């Protein structure tokens, strides 16, 4: 008999920047700096990502576009692939993401695309330790997820191969 599978996700909504702890606000600030350096001449949609590593260092990424549109890459994956290429064995503690449109200061909700969520899930499972994901939310709020699993339930993984 068919039955319902109820899935519960936990996402904390922080009402303002004051609710971020010191590391979170530093990560968000670095993500904003990264967004300023995005190469997004086609969309003018500037995405910045910052990874906090276990040793307290940060690694930044931003979206990189291309005239051949699909050749470009999102900020989250630029950060994660760059980090993994340079520090393959370091644990990622946190990923912060922010977005704004060029020539605007207001932050937009930073909701990672499905492909980026899949890549986040792979690194979380590889390191066998949660990655906290902090996203810019609407109207000055932030979304705090304790694990990538909260952003991608019923996730495909290498274990399924
Ligand atoms: N983009 C990201 O960097 N991250 C996402 O999660 C969604 C989209 C970028 C890709 C492209 O450069 C621009 O935003 C518009 O889609």
Automatic annotation (TrEMBL):
GO biological process: nucleobase-containing small molecule metabolic process; pyrimidine-containing compound metabolic process
Domain of life: Bacteria
InterPro entries with a match to the protein in the record: APOBEC/CMP_deaminase_Zn-bd (IPR016192), CMP_dCMP_dom (IPR002125), Cyt/Deoxycyt_deaminase (IPR050202), Cyt_deam_tetra (IPR006262), Cytidine_deaminase-like (IPR016193)
Enzyme Commission number(s) of this protein: 3.5.4.5
Residues annotated as domain CMP/dCMP-type deaminase: 22-159
Gene3D superfamilies noted in UniProt: Cytidine Deaminase, domain 2
GO CC field: cytosol
Catalysed reactions, as listed in the record: cytidine + H2O + H(+) = uridine + NH4(+); 2'-deoxycytidine + H2O + H(+) = 2'-deoxyuridine + NH4(+)
Residues that, per the record, bind substrate: 63-69
SUPFAM superfamilies the UniProt entry points to: Cytidine deaminase-like
Binding site for Zn(2+): 74, 113, 116
Cofactor: Zn(2+)
Keywords: Hydrolase, Metal-binding, Zinc
Gene Ontology terms for molecular function: cytidine deaminase activity; identical protein binding; zinc ion binding
Active site: 76
Family designation: Belongs to the cytidine and deoxycytidylate deaminase family.
NCBIfam families assigned: cyt_deam_tetra, PRK05578.1
Function: This enzyme scavenges exogenous and endogenous cytidine and 2'-deoxycytidine for UMP synthesis.
Protein name: Cytidine deaminase
Gene this chain is encoded by: cdd
């Amino acid at each position: 008999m068919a039955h319902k599978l109820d899935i519960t996700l936990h996402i904390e909504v922080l009402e303002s920047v004051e609710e971020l702890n010191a590391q979170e606000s530093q990560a968000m600030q670095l993500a904003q700096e990264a967004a300023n350096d995005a190469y997004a001449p086609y969309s003018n949609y500037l995405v910045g990502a910052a990874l906090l590593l276990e040793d307290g260092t940060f690694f930044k990424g931003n979206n990189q576009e291309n005239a051949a549109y699909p050749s470009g890459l999102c900020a989250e994956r630029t950060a994660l692939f760059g980090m993994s290429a340079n520090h393959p064995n370091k644990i990622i503690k946190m990923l912060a993401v922010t977005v704004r449109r060029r020539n605007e200061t207001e932050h937009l909700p930073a909701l990672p695309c499905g492909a980026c969520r899949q890549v986040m899930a792979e690194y979380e499972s590889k390191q066998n330790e949660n990655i906290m994901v902090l996203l810019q939310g609407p109207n000055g709020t932030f979304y705090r997820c304790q694990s990538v699993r909260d952003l991608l339930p019923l996730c495909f993984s290498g274990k399924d191969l």
